[in-house]
Design a protein that fits this description.
Strand content: 25-35%
Number of strands: 43
Oligomer: single chain
CATH class of the largest domain: Alpha Beta
Helix content: 10-25%
Shape: elongated
Length: 658
């Protein structure tokens, strides 16, 4: 679209019209033009600019400013940025910078795909080595690719910002949406280069893909001529992604990038995707030792964007030997994970059955994008940071050779995805589980089923008193849809309740300490930990100086405190003794013997009794039959049991004289 020039220093058309209608005099343009930044960035495209408007500009103002810009406006941005891209002469650039709505102007810069020349045609139908590698911890390869039918990427959109996709390829099985063409070719996101189809096949091809049921969305930012693009098209693609994403789990694959220096527009746009809850997976970058521009010769991933952006998942590439491919793959602290990138076979654009072999961090990235899509299909509400943590946390450590200074030594792994966290505080429902350090509690808060950080599954009483332990090391426990409760060490099941024929079930932590597995079809209990305890009285939960009839103090729970705040009474979590403690001096002034008590309760008959977790009475004040009473910690440190009528002391710890 070619637009007419406006006179330098004039108002935008809409602003001038508004002032005229209001009968107000026109206001001159700002004396200080908007900054022109980044002209020393590598790969500047002469005469092409990204115009960033101020943050408070509305969509209408963006469009009005673009229409009034002069020159040729190539893209308008309303989601990723407030602004537009335009081809401008020097005079037109001056006019744009005089617009008071403009925050700053950047030059368009070159963006590259990160692949290397093609090696060969390949009609291989078996899983490529990349798939084979990411589903096992160590070499040698076992000529197999394992995936779980419950996390194949179904319900997840994968936006592929690339050269388009050959949607009719048989490997995509009708899972390609119309998408968007951000280039000026105008024929839709139809791949006539191959790079985008290759990447998409690794993400979600039925044969060549990691997530075999993901929905692919082509966003074409590279032209058919196979040349580099500039960031104006990439920004338009990101703008489309944010606009198209109206909710639901989504991941974006960017097997591309450019020098990070003075490339703030890309950084800002990618951060908008992250804010929109779109997981972003990017190539760490290929370096080119013989490139004329030194910006492309650096092997450090932090020198490229979007690879250096915090919050994206940055992927570098390995060879079949588990070595970083030092011929091209960048490295450093901005890398999150490595994945297979050399000699990767995937779908190709020349026919509906074609395959091709490419090298590059571009080829490594979609392996991780596929893993992210698979994760999101069972963790539909996961944030980008949670997906990043899951992928880096499950990666295979310390197998990448020559990872490079500052690189984390992590190789992507597709099979270790713990079940989604439970959404109920006291139970596991079908498909949910507990990972290391997670637990569910009984409604009264006294009992807890916990997957400990040492891998053991335990039932504990308040105060960490153990009642039951599995005694097996496991990574997580999950309640499967068939009703079986299974503990897994990575992908290997190490224990189960053998209740897999019961269908939809629930595992509940009950107020009596028992953990019960119920079949929901008829409510029948089919398994338990056998940890039923005597039903305890309600515990004191608010600060007070006394126990009244029917109340209790629990091991590791709340304490009584004297009105002056100096003395406290509690059942110590470490050894279960009842303690009167001088809180100011920091010393015990009275205790029971180490009886491994669990709670102290004041009974209705006036007796104060210490019970074990099994309900056995271990100690008492011997005041049973006295009727209604109360236990009070006094300001002098004495712990006294009083008869409520006639207010007579029946027992004391005799600690008030200490």
């Amino acid at each position: 679209m070619t637009l007419s020039l406006r006179a330098r220093g004039a108002l935008t058309g809409l602003a001038a019209l508004a002032l005229a209608v209001a009968g107000l005099p026109a206001v001159a343009a700002t004396d200080d033009p908007a900054p022109l930044v980044g002209m020393d960035a590598p790969g500047v495209v002469q005469g092409s600019y990204i115009v960033i408007l101020k943050d408070d500009a509305s969509d209408a103002e963006v469009r009005a400013a673009a229409d009034d810009a002069g020159g040729t406006v190539t893209h308008r941005y309303t989601e990723a940025l407030n602004g537009y891209a335009a081809k401008l002469s020097d005079d037109e650039l001056d006019d744009v910078r005089d617009d008071p709505a403009v925050d700053h102007v950047e030059p368009a810069v070159v963006v590259r795909r990160f692949d290397t020349p093609v090696h060969k045609l390949d009609n291989q139908a078996n899983p490529d080595w990349g798939l084979d590698r990411i589903d096992q911890r160590k070499l040698p390869l076992n000529d197999d690719y394992f995936w779980n039918a419950s996390n194949e990427g179904a319900g997840v959109k994968a936006y592929v910002l690339d050269s388009g996709i050959r949607a009719t390829h048989t490997d995509f099985a009708g899972r390609v949406l119309p998408g968007y063409d951000a280039t000026d070719e105008g024929d839709g996101p139809v791949d006539c280069d191959g790079h985008g189809t290759h990447v998409s096949g690794t993400i979600g091809g039925t044969t060549h893909g990691v997530a075999k049921r993901v929905t692919l969305v082509p966003v074409q930012v590279f032209r058919c001529d196979g040349l580099d693009t500039d960031n104006s098209a990439l920004l338009a693609g990101i703008d489309y992604v944010i606009k198209n994403h109206t909710g639901g789990p989504a991941v974006a694959n960017l097997s591309l990038g450019g020098p990070a220096k003075n490339n703030g527009a890309i950084d800002k746009a990618v951060n908008k995707m992250l804010t929109d809850k779109i997981t972003v997976v990017v190539a760490s970058g290929n370096f080119y030792p013989s490139d004329q521009d030194p910006a492309w010769r650096t092997p450090i991933a932090c020198n490229y964007t979007p690879a250096h952006i915090k919050g994206v998942i940055t992927v570098s590439a390995t060879k079949t030997s588990d070595s970083r491919d030092t011929a091209y793959a960048t490295y450093g602290s901005c890398v999150d994970v490595f994945a297979p990138g050399t000699n990767v076979v995937s779908t190709w654009y020349t026919s509906d059955t074609a395959t091709f072999t490419l090298d590059g961090t571009s080829m490594a990235t979609p392996h991780v994008t596929g893993i992210a899509a698979a994760y999101l299909s069972t963790h539909t509400n996961a944030t980008p940071s949670q997906v990043q943590a899951a992928i880096t946390g499950s990666a295979t450590p310390n197998v990448v050779r020559f990872a490079g200074t500052g690189s984390p030594n992590r190789l992507a792994y597709s099979r270790v995805f713990p079940p989604p966290r439970t959404t109920e505080p006291d139970r596991l429902t079908s498909g949910r589980g507990l990972r290391m350090g997670e637990s569910i509690k009984s409604p009264n808060g006294l009992y807890r089923l916990q997957q400990q950080t040492d891998g053991n599954l335990v039932v504990v009483r308040q105060g960490n008193r153990p009642l039951w332990a599995l005694g097996r090391k496991a990574s997580w426990v999950t309640l499967q849809s068939n009703g079986n409760l299974v503990s897994y060490l990575y992908t290997k099941g190490v224990w189960s309740t053998n209740t897999g024929s019961n269908g939809n079930s629930e595992l509940r932590v009950q107020n009596d300490g028992n953990v019960m597995l119920y079949r929901l079809s008829d409510g029948k209990a089919v398994w338990s930990t056998g940890t039923k305890q005597r039903t305890p009285p309600p515990q004191v939960t608010t600060p007070t100086d006394r126990l009244t009839a029917g109340q209790a103090l629990y091991r590791g729970g709340a304490a009584l405190q004297s009105p002056n705040g100096r003395y406290g009474v509690y059942v110590r979590s470490s050894n279960g003794v009842l303690v009167v403690r001088d809180l100011v001096a920091g010393r015990d002034i009275w205790t029971t013997k180490a009886l491994v008590d669990d709670w102290l309760t004041l009974q209705a008959d006036g007796n104060a009794v210490l019970y074990s977790s099994g309900g056995k009475a271990l100690w008492s004040t011997g005041t049973g039959g006295k009727g209604d009473a109360r236990l009070i910690i006094q300001n002098d440190g004495n712990f006294v049991l009083y008869d409520n009528s006639p207010n007579k002391a029946l027992w004391s710890s005799k600690s008030g004289k200490v």
